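B., you asked whether I could sanity-check this one before it goes into the benchmark set. Here's the sequence:
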Amino acid sequence: MVTLLRASWPILPPDRFGHAEAVAQIRAYLAGEIAPPDSSPATPAELWSVEAGRVRTALRRVRQGAVSAAAEHPDDARKLAAELRELADEVEQGLQ
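And here's what the prediction gave me:
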C-alpha cells in the first residue's frame, strides 16, 4: 500500500487536495491513462537539496533509535555519534 501511495503521489496537484479528484487521478494512473511527471532533479543544486533532505530524514530516524538504545549500548552510541561528527566535518570542509 505504501508503495502504491509513493508511486501515485507525484501525479496529485501540489497546491490542493480534493478526495474525489485524487481518487480519479490515482485510478487513471493505475490504468495507465496518465504518467507521473518526471520528478528527477534537473540541476546539481536540486539534486543536493533532495539528497540533503533524505539524509536529514534518515538521521532523525537513527537518532530516535540511538537515543533508545544508548542506555543499553553506550559505547556503540558514542561511536555512531563520533562517526556522524566526522562526516559532518567532511561536508563542512568541502565548503572551504
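One thing to flag: The mean pLDDT is 79. Otherwise nothing jumped out at me.
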